[in-house]
Specification:
The protein is α/β, with parallel strands linked by helices. It has 15 helices and 16 strands. It is a single-pass membrane protein; Single-pass type II membrane protein.
Length: 582
C-alpha cells in the first residue's frame, strides 16, 4: 500500500518487505551480540561463573568491536551554599507536601526529574579534611558539622561537647550517664552472646550521635545506626563524620530497606518509637515521676508491650534496671499457633507478602514467620563471627544460580581485585580511608576482602537486581537496598571511597549517568576517592562527566589488562563556594 492506495509494483514491495525483514533480523542479532558483550558477569550468578581466575589471566585480550560511547564536554555549576547539607529524598523544604501521620513526611520522598539539581554541593565555610580513624570516634571539626542546637540541647547529657574548633564525644547518652562503655558492659552481662561472636550485626534506632554503635566496633559487632533527617540534630551526619556506620531512616509507614532476618540484635534507647501507643518506660516503677504520668498508667503501657511482644513470638530474656531484653523465638510452633488462630493480632503475614521486599514496601501489621525451607537461619544455627564470613549461608540457595562454590569463587576474585586496587590506590588500607561504599555488590566480596583493614563497608544491592542482600547480612556484613536512579539516604560528604563494578553497564538504560555522578559527588568527602570498574564502552563518557565534577581522574588497567574493561580512579578536590570567604 502506498498513500492509501495499492502499489502498482508488487515485486518491489515484496523485495522491500524482504529487505526490511532481513534488516530487522540483522539488527536483532546485532543487538543480541551487544547485549551479550556488555552484560556484566555479575548479573549471571550461575554455576558456570565458577571459572578459574587463571583462565582469565592467560586469555588474550579482545579488542572492542564497538566504538566507545561519546558525550559532549560538561561542567556542572556550583549549588547555592544553602544546599551544603542537602538530602534530596528527605528534604525538610518539601515536608509540607506530605502527611504527618506517624511522621511519614520523614520517609523518603524523592524529587521528580524536573526538580533535580544539576549542580555541585559546596562544603561549609571553613571545612577541613575529617580527623582520621580512630581519633575521629572521639572528636570532629566543628566547621564540618556546624550544629549549635544539638550542642546546647544535649551537652548536659554528654552526647557531645564543643571545645574550641572541635566537637568532642565523651560517650554519654540520655540513658547512660556513666558512659556508653559501662552501659554496654551491663548489656553484655545480660546477653553473653555479645561476647563470643554469636551477635555480629546490630541496628540502633534513634541513634543519637551513634556512641552505642561506635563502642560495639571494638567488641566485634557491626552496627547500622538509624535516625531520620531533622532540622537541628543531624544525628546521622555526626555518626558518619566520626567514622561510624549510619543511614537516614525512620520506622513509619514503610519497611526499612533491609531484608528479613537481617540483624542479630536491635537496640532502642529513648528512641521515641511508640511501641504500644506512646510509651513505654521499661523501668516504670522508678521512672514514672519524671514523665508527668502515674505508675498505674506506665504499668499498663508496659503490660501492653509485654503482651504485644509475646503475641509476636518474643520472650522476655533478661532485665536489669533500665535495660530489658526480649528474644525472638525460632521455634516454629509459636508461628503455627498464630496462623491457626483467626483472631490473633497481629496475624501471620500471608504468602502474598514477600518477606525480603523492602524498597518502598508498605509496613503491615503482621508477623513475618521464618521461611520453612531455610531451617538454619536462627542465630544459634549459623557460625559465629568471624567463621560465618567464609561459610556459604543457607539463604544463598534463594539466589538464582547461587552456590557455595560460587561464593568461594567470588571471594577469591575480589581478593585478587582488592590487591590490585591497593597498587593503583595506595591510600586503600590506610587511615586515609574509613567510610566505604560498594555501590552495587553481589555477595559482599569487596567488603570481605577489606575486613582486616581499618574500614567499614556499606554494601548496596540494587532494588532491580537479584536479591543477594540476605547473603551479605548472613555473612556478618551490613548493607541496604537502593535504586541509583534516586539519591542515597545520607548527608553530603559522608564517604571516603565509593566503589562500583559495571554499574553503568547494568543501570544506564534506567538511570541517567549524569545524575548518578552528581549523587556520587554529593556523598563523597572532599579528598575522597572513587574506583569505577566499567566496560570500555562507557569509560570515555564517564571520564568526561567526572571532569565536569572537578574530580582528578586517571585510567588504569584491570588486574588482567583486559581491553574490554578498565578502571577509573578519581579523587574529589576540596573547593569552596565562590560566595564563601574561605
Amino acid at each position: 500500500m502506498k498513500n492509501g492506495k495499492q502499489s502498482s509494483q508488487p515485486e518491489k514491495g515484496s523485495s522491500r518487505i524482504l529487505s526490511l525483514t532481513v534488516l530487522f533480523i540483522a539488527l536483532c542479532g546485532f543487538s543480541f551480540y551487544l547485549g551479550g558483550m556488555f552484560c556484566s558477569e555479575r548479573v549471571k550468578i550461575e554455576a558456570n561463573d565458577v571459572t578459574s581466575a587463571n583462565t582469565k589471566a592467560v586469555a588474550s585480550p579482545m579488542k572492542p568491536t564497538v566504538s566507545p560511547l561519546q558525550i559532549k564536554s560538561v561542567s556542572f555549576p556550583e549549588c547555592s551554599s544553602e544546599l551544603q547539607d542537602y538530602t534530596p529524598c528527605t528534604d525538610p523544604k518539601r515536608w509540607k507536601r506530605y502527611g504527618v501521620h506517624r511522621l511519614s513526611f520523614l520517609e523518603r520522598h524523592c524529587p521528580p526529574v524536573y526538580e533535580k539539581n544539576e549542580c555541585l554541593i559546596p562544603p561549609p565555610d571553613g571545612y577541613k579534611p575529617p580527623i582520621r580513624w580512630p581519633k575521629s570516634r572521639y572528636q570532629c571539626w566543628y566547621k564540618n558539622v556546624p550544629y549549635d542546637w544539638i550542642n546546647k540541647q544535649k551537652s548536659n547529657q554528654h552526647w557531645l561537647k564543643k571545645e574550641g574548633d572541635k566537637f568532642h564525644f565523651p560517650g554519654g547518652g540520655t540513658m547512660f550517664p556513666r558512659g556508653v562503655s559501662h552501659y554496654v558492659d551491663q548489656m553484655q552481662d545480660l546477653i553473653p552472646e555479645m561476647k563470643d561472636g554469636t551477635v555480629r550485626t546490630a541496628i540502633d534506632t534513634g541513634c543519637g550521635v551513634a556512641s552505642w554503635g561506635g563502642d560495639l566496633l571494638d567488641r566485634g559487632i557491626l552496627t547500622i545506626s538509624l535516625a531520620p533527617r531533622d532540622n537541628h540534630e543531624a544525628q546521622v551526619q555526626f555518626a558518619l563524620e566520626r567514622g561510624i556506620p549510619a543511614i537516614l531512616g525512620v520506622i513509619s509507614t514503610q519497611r526499612l530497606p533491609f531484608p528479613s532476618n537481617s540483624f542479630d540484635m536491635a537496640h532502642c534507647s529513648r528512641c521515641l518509637i511508640p511501641w504500644t501507643e506512646f510509651g513505654p518506660p521499661v523501668n516504670y516503677n522508678r521512672r514514672w515521676r519524671g514523665w508527668n504520668t502515674t505508675m498505674e498508667d506506665q504499668k499498663s503501657d508496659y503490660n501492653k508491650l509485654q503482651s504485644l511482644l509475646t503475641s509476636m513470638c518474643f520472650k522476655k530474656y533478661a532485665q536489669k534496671d533500665d535495660i530489658a531484653v526480649w528474644q525472638k523465638l525460632s521455634d516454629k510452633s509459636c508461628y503455627d499457633k498464630i496462623a491457626k488462630n483467626m483472631e490473633a493480632y497481629p496475624p501471620k503475614c500471608d504468602d502474598s507478602i514477600e518477606p525480603d521486599s523492602a524498597w518502598y514496601t508498605p509496613l503491615r501489621p503482621c508477623v513475618v514467620a521464618p521461611t520453612a525451607k531455610v531451617k538454619n537461619s536462627g542465630l544459634g544455627s549459623i557460625p559465629k563471627w568471624p567463621e560465618r564470613l567464609n561459610v556459604a549461608p543457607e539463604r544463598i540457595s534463594d539466589v538464582h544460580g547461587g552456590s557455595a562454590s560460587g561464593l568461594k569463587h567470588d571471594d577469591g576474585k575480589w581478593k585478587s581485585r582488592v590487591k590490585h586496587y591497593k597498587n593503583v590506590l595506595p591510600a586503600l588500607g590506610t587511615d586515609k580511608i574509613r567510610n566505604v561504599m560498594d555501590m552495587n555488590t553481589v555477595y559482599g566480596g569487596f567488603a570481605a576482602a577489606l575486613v582486616k583493614d581499618p574500614v567499614w563497608v556499606m554494601n548496596v544491592v540494587s532494588s532491580h537486581s537479584a536479591n543477594t542482600l540476605p547473603v551479605v547480612f548472613d555473612r556478618g556484613l551490613i548493607g541496604t537496598y537502593h535504586d541509583w536512579c534516586e539519591a542515597f539516604s545520607t548527608y553530603p560528604r559522608t564517604y571516603d571511597l565509593l566503589h562500583l563494578d559495571s554499574l553503568f553497564t547494568l543501570e544506564s538504560h534506567r538511570c541517567e549517568m549524569k545524575y548518578v555522578l552528581l549523587e556520587m559527588d554529593r556523598i563523597l568527602r572532599p579528598g575522597g576517592y572513587v574506583i569505577m570498574r566499567e566496560s570500555s564502552y562507557f569509560m570515555d563518557a564517564i571520564t568526561m562527566l567526572a571532569k565536569g565534577t572537578r574530580w582528578n581522574c586517571r585510567r588504569e588497567e584491570t588486574e588482567y589488562a583486559l581491553e574490554s574493561e578498565k578502571i577509573l580512579v578519581c579523587q574529589k578536590k576540596l573547593w569552596f563556594s565562590s560566595n564563601q570567604t574561605s
